[in-house]
Amino acid sequence: MSLLITGIGELTTHDPGLGVLTGAAVVVDGDRIAWVGPMGGAPDADERLDVGGAAVIPGFVDSHAHLVFAGDRAAEFAARMNGEPYTGGGIRTTVAATRAASDEELLAAAGRLVAEARRQGTTTIEIKSGYGLSVAQEARSLRIARQLTEETTFLGAHVVPAEYRDDPDGYVALVGGPMLAAAAPHARWIDVFCDRGAFDGDQTREILTAGAKAGLGLRVHANQLAPGPGVRLAVELGAASADHCTHLGDADVAALAGSDTVATLLPGAEFSTRSPYPDARRLLDAGVTVALATDCNPGSSYTSSMPFCLALAVREMRMTPAEALWAATAGGARALRRDDVGVLRPGARADLAVLDAPSFLHLAYRPGVPLISTVLHNGVPR
Ligand code: NIG
Ligand code: FE
Fold it and tell me: How far, in Å, from the CA of 297 to the mean position of ligand 2?
């Protein structure tokens, strides 16, 4: 089954050879893009969709989300908006609720969030574990995540759970040993929350090194709450992504700039914790590859909306609209080491969003407005 999408007023491809096209068409064959070019030259297809001058963009690649959990923490959010700081301590509240939930409840709740993200243009989403924090519970969270995405991440090292409070090194050994063994068959990635109140540099190194030996790719929650070794460790160990990057020194920026490690910025977290935003301009000017993602989770960033994060990045982080769109699509693909998403060119996945707007600029220009009219995922409109 092939589909000709025509009448595209503005097509952002993120392919260096194709660029941004006006008056364009795209042909989709099965789950792939077959052809991209000017409207007049489009080949025939089985079906036809005229989008009437709308803008079309690659589907968003949300490379950082925590969707397997139960309950919410709205009261914690309200307390923060009344002056309480965010410490990550509330993670244990969600762990208790998650452990008590059934598999069916967790899958249904995560599935609802994936569907919510999809309606807002997200076609690739990474999902982390990290609210189970025992061997059986982390394996269960990843089995559930695997039903929703290929991009699953083992985050047993989210915080030290209450039952290991007096033996954090025992917990690190558990994460890097039996928990990793149970998680690895269901995970593509391993992540550690390397920060104040979570795991230090030595613990992070131990867990990531074990994860790499088990064949997992590396990602790090780094420098969110305080300066620390997370970003430099991510670069040294060849992690695909260092996420948050809020508190950076010059050495951190230089390390990222000379590496293949993507800096994934999560402005929903700064919004929701009322914290200063990361300095995207400084990273971009230094030549760092930047991605944007939602960090969707019930504590620090309960949004599934990539358009919202993109608008924040433009308004609060001095990114241009074009830089923010790239970071939310092609940048996320880099952070997941994927070359088949985040870009619209022949051979790429047929993952795209049609906007109810003549230009992608409207994503930041009209914040909070639902501008995603049609989403194609693997070539299927949904
Ligand atoms: O990325 N920083 C660590 N983990 C999450 C927050 C999780 C939570 O508060 O439940 C984050 O912001
Ligand atoms: Fe996170």
Answer: 7
